[in-house]
Fold this protein.
Amino acid sequence: MNNFTISVPASSANIGPGFDSLGLALDLYLTLTVSENDAWKIYQQSLLLPACNNYTDHFIYQIAQHTATQYGKELPTCCLTIDSSIPLARGLGSSASAIIAGIELANQCCQLHLSKEEKLQLATEQEGHPDNVGAALFGGLVITNYNEDTSVDIYRIDQLNIDMIIFIPQDELKTEAARNVLPDTYSRAHAAQASSIGNVFIAALMNEDYPMAGKMMEKDIFHEPYRAELIPNYAPIKQKANELGAYGTVISGAGPTMISFFPKGTGTQNKQKLQAAFPSYNIQQRKMDSTGLRVEKK
Ligand SMILES: Nc1ncnc2c1ncn2[C@@H]1O[C@H](COP(=O)(O)OP(=O)(O)OP(=O)(O)O)[C@@H](O)[C@H]1O
Ligand SMILES: N[C@@H](CCO)C(=O)O
């Protein structure tokens, strides 16, 4: 086995009305440097990574082991050096990136020769929905459909002429907790209204009509109204971004990070103003990652 590096981007799911369906890859990365070794060793270089004393408890190892077993293979012992700029449990797809990294680790180490579509299917089965894993794997903005009885259908937009700003608060919010506040069912009228918002949103994005896309993203009724109370400064962040000319501001994934979409060229100046307005936040201007999962052999 040659040494190699796996790199997987962060992602922002939903973008308002695309609950469990839309994902946007962002230029923050989880990286694994892998070499064959006579015993398992995992070195973690970033303070953003969760502490782990035993390799068998490591989420990425568990996903790799599970994938190898699914294909009747044995994972060779490896030395992993893991680094990350993706904050955990903030709505930036950290678990999806870890799942993709684990699947790719097994793919490389066990020579599974998995196609991207097969990786997407495996990752979606692990995560439960294809939005974050689709973006992390393919890069760009992905539009997906999945239910437990079918394979994942996916389209991709790889060009967005907008600037993006993310607002990362200090405290975590676990996806599970943010899913627990959602209704189990929606009435027909509610579902029809919610999906019509999503339909116009995608049409607006495809036509680069960003004012309309911003209007639609803020009209979501699938998840935003239920989660707003869990998100610190939900209304003030939207209001301030709106005053500064944002097309729209929504919860990133399950939160608590929020993401604003600004006219191209206005991100840098607005980032400074927003950081001054919300000093306890880690506010960053980010770009879309257009590549997704990368493997570099040494
Ligand atoms: N690099 C990693 N290594 C090990 N475990 C990880 C890693 N990244 C994420 N995890 C696990 O996933 C959990 C976070 O997943 P969760 O679904 O709550 O949030 P998220 O994926 O960051 O956000 P969202 O799904 O809303 O975008 C962490 O608490 C940790 O258990
Ligand atoms: N679509 C998911 C993303 C987070 O995993 C949600 O909003 O719960």
User: Anything to note?
Assistant: The pocket of adenosine-5'-triphosphate (ligand 1) is lined by residues 13, 30, 49-50, 59-60, 84, 88-96, 98, 132, 174-175, 253-254 (CB under 6 Å). The longest helix spans residues 188-206. The chain has two domains: 4-157+289-297, 162-286.
